[in-house]
Write a structure and sequence with these properties.
This protein is α/β, with parallel strands linked by helices. It contains twelve helices and twelve strands. The chain has helices at 6-13, 17-24, 32-44, 51-58, 74-89, 103-115, 133-140, 164-177, 193-208, 228-239, 253-265, 299-315; strands spanning 63-68, 93-98, 120-123, 145-148, 159-162, 183-187, 218-220, 247-250, 275-279, 293-296, 325-328, 331-333. The strands form two sheets. It has a six-stranded parallel beta sheet with strand order 2-1-3-4-5-11, sandwiched between helices. Strands 7-6-8-9-10-12 form a six-stranded mixed beta sheet, sandwiched between helices. Strand 8, helix 11 (253-265) and strand 9 form a beta-alpha-beta unit. The longest helix is centred in the last third of the chain and has 17 residues, at 299-315.
């Protein structure tokens, strides 16, 4: 296969090579329409920058470090696809590591990636990470860092997340509109941003519909569903509650699927005895029995935006940048698991 070059793209689009080069780098100097034409043509012709030549020219590794809780999670695998789609076209490779909800593993992975001289980091915090000094130290030394999904509150950099509050509100309001009143919430560690935002959306929906908040219906899983015993304890406490919840709003993939399995194991039916709505990007949600109602996040787009932010920080290190926090819209997909039987 013939390798296409920047000169070939420039000739085909009747542009200068410098314009094409800047457009491929996402330069703010090139107008959006020209960028779009160049990027679409480059993708169509399978153009790929030469990362070795670029790294020698720019004294960069042309690599980006990504730290996430786990690749097996559908949300994170979709987000990585979005990250790679941008990074690859901009001449960067990605190096992926998993923290498995462990602060220690996150710390080790961060140090390793820094030693590998990645040009920047995209991070989704572990369930144990309430100390961010390792990131602040790297940022002070000039390492660009962008957070996505699980983002720190008091940290100055770009952040990309879903609108967790609205997603949780809509899920809870849907259950209420179906006639459920004793709605429990199964969620992640209390200090994570996604936990707080989803909890607030859940509470606000209850308040707006005149339903008292019952604290014993709110269960935190400090390992985000990765510890089966922890999830089982939380779910059994809910379904053996003196006033058993008639619905559960669950805040993650593993929490949701584990809940469904445990509810069935205890001889209860979904949704007849306990309805359920998840906050999950499970691609098999419609194949579960019953089909799972879920709040889905634009994971692919979140990954793309986080990568665009990071590459902008890498390639314009001396520019005055206004850091942004972007929240992308979620979508509630209603299926059988949350529909009250007639």
């Amino acid at each position: 296969m013939e390798v296409i070059t920047i000169k070939d793209i420039a000739k085909a689009l009747n542009l200068s090579t410098s314009t094409v080069s800047r457009a491929l780098r996402g330069s703010y100097e090139i107008n959006p329409e020209t960028k779009r034409l160049v990027m679409e043509y480059a993708e169509r012709m399978n153009y790929r920058p030469n990362p070795i030549a670029l790294s020698l020219k720019e004294n960069r590794s042309r690599s980006i470090g990504i730290i996430i809780p786990e690749i097996a999670n559908n949300f994170f695998s979709q987000a990585i696809n979005g990250m790679e789609s941008i990074a690859y076209n901009r001449g960067y490779h990605v190096v992926i590591s998993q923290n498995h909800e462990s602060y220690e593993r996150e710390l080790v992975n961060t140090q390793y990636l820094a030693q590998r001289r990645v040009d920047g980091l995209i991070v989704s915090l572990s369930g144990e990470s309430n100390d961010l000094e390792h990131f602040k130290e790297l940022q002070t030394k000039g390492m660009p860092i962008v957070f996505f999904d699980r983002v720190p509150q008091d940290y100055i950099t770009h952040k990309v997340s879903a609108d967790n509050f609205v997603g949780a509100y809509e899920a809870t309001a849907h259950l209420i509109q179906q006639g459920f009143r004793r709605i429990a919430h199964l969620t992640s560690p209390s200090w994570l941003s996604i936990t707080y935002e989803r909890l607030e959306g859940y509470k606000k929906a209850l308040q707006n519909h005149g339903i008292p908040i019952e604290e014993s219906y709110i269960k935190y899983c400090s390992h985000g569903g990765m510890n089966p015993d922890e999830v089982e304890k939380a779910v059994l406490e809910l379904i053996h509650h003196p006033e058993r919840p008639d619905a559960i709003f669950s805040a993650g993939d593993r929490l949701t699927t584990s809940s469904m399995s445990l509810i069935k194991r205890e001889g209860l039916r979904i949704p007849e005895d306990v309805a359920i709505v998840g906050f999950t990007n499970l691609i098999s949600a419609h194949l579960l029995s019953p089909a799972l109602s879920a709040v889905t996040q634009p994971a692919y787009e979140m990954g793309q935006l986080a990568t665009e932010f990071l590459i902008d920080l890498i390639e314009r290190p001396k520019s005055t940048i206004r850091f942004e926090t972007k929240r992308l819209e979620t979508k509630l997909v209603i299926r059988e698991s949350s529909l009250k039987p007639a």
